[in-house]
User: What shape does this take?
Amino acid sequence: MSTIAFPDFLEDPASFSMDQATNQRGFASPGGGSDLVVDMMNDRWNASATISPRSAAEAAAVEAFVASMRGLTNVVYLYHLQRPQPQGTYSGVLSIFLATGPGADAVYLKGGAAGQTLLAGDLIGVNGMLLQVASDCVADGLGRIGVPIVNRLRRATVVDQSVTWDRPTAPFRLISKSAVSYVPGYSPEVSFDFVEAIL
Assistant: This one.
């Protein structure tokens, strides 16, 4: 497995979406009673992007990217292409101030300023995980903030571990059969589907 450099043509896609795939199992009672749903953890992100038509010459770089991904073999590190930074104001040299274990539904950060915020939907990066803020939160007088997260932790966090707020990324594999086609004078739009790689 190799890491492929993030391609320039994905910087400003014509469309983009990111959603969470929850790993769960549901069981229905055979007697008509209640259902049981088991959260198996290990959530992953799906991402889809479509790039605008481009010249035939520019399309060569798109072809090279698709080929270099080698199907599911290699990974590219992606961030939320429409929200590369939080909508909230919490920023700075951020790190963990309270350790949490796998399965936790919150992380605890320090390094921001009192009163700064993270808002629902903001994304942060911790220990190779791309975590989404579940609800608005505000830093205390010491600049510390408890952050409820939508996805559960796959790995533990440790005190003083760094936290990324500007373009936090995770590794993704290309799962679509994206192909570049040509018509006279230009190459039409190309769509890509990715799934987060659990490394």
